[in-house]
Design goal:
- With about 190 residues, the protein is an all-beta fold.
- Helix content is about 0%, strand content about 50%.
- It has a 9-stranded parallel sheet, with no helix packed on it.
- The longest helix is centred in the last third of the chain and has 4 residues.
- The radius of gyration is 17 Å and the shape is elongated.
- It starts with a strand and ends with a strand.
- About 30% of the residues are buried.
């Protein structure tokens, strides 16, 4: 268990470690926790509570078997790949996942919070719950690949240059795809060749 009080900063690094029964992390209002783990196994997942921020700077690939963001934000500073066996849950409307340098989602993100993405997003995995996906760079793209699933999720294009790319061959209906409802404020839709 790792608790950081109001307005404080803290860092924790795991190297060549095994954690059983998961990690419970609480960051109070204004707190920033910097966390890195390499060559480590976290059995039981990571539970993040408190309205502060957890910043994950380095991590092992395919190590997010269960990340539950109950409140506040979890920030990934590097390009974030969520592998097919990985899952993230945003348990409340006050929970946020921030991908600072883009997101490749092959696994799943579910819940009722929001995802803030800077740069581009590639989706071949699943999004479910009443999620809000906010594209926050000056120029953004969302690429839908074979196997993607979207349930009750809204994508918000927040710039004047938002691009939706469909890589699957096929015939698309704008209404069934959700242009204007699921995908809001996209300037361009690009179909596969």
């Amino acid at each position: 268990e790792w608790n950081v009080g109001i307005g404080n900063d803290s860092s924790h690094v795991l190297v060549d470690s095994t954690v059983v029964d998961g990690i419970d992390i609480e960051a109070d209002f204004g707190a920033i926790l910097n966390f890195s783990y390499t060559n480590s196994s976290i059995i039981g997942g990571i539970n993040k509570t408190g309205s502060g921020s957890l910043k994950i700077n380095n991590r092992d690939e395919n190590s997010l078997n269960d990340l539950d963001i109950k409140d506040g934000s979890v920030i990934f500073s590097d390009y974030l790949t969520i592998g097919s066996e990985e899952q993230i849950t945003l348990s409340s409307q006050n929970s946020m996942l921030i991908a600072s340098n883009g997101l490749n989602l092959a696994g799943s993100v579910s819940g009722s919070g929001s995802v803030e993405i800077y740069n581009d997003m590639t989706l071949s995995g699943a999004l479910s719950g009443s999620l809000s996906i906010n594209l926050s760079s000056a120029s953004n793209s969302v690429t839908l690949q074979d196997g993607y699933n979207i349930f009750d999720t809204t994508f918000n294009g927040n710039s004047s240059d938002d691009l939706l790319i469909l890589e699957e061959n096929g015939t698309y209906d704008a209404q069934k795809l959700g242009v204007g409802t699921t995908f809001q404020n996209f300037e361009v839709v690009q179909l596969s060749n």
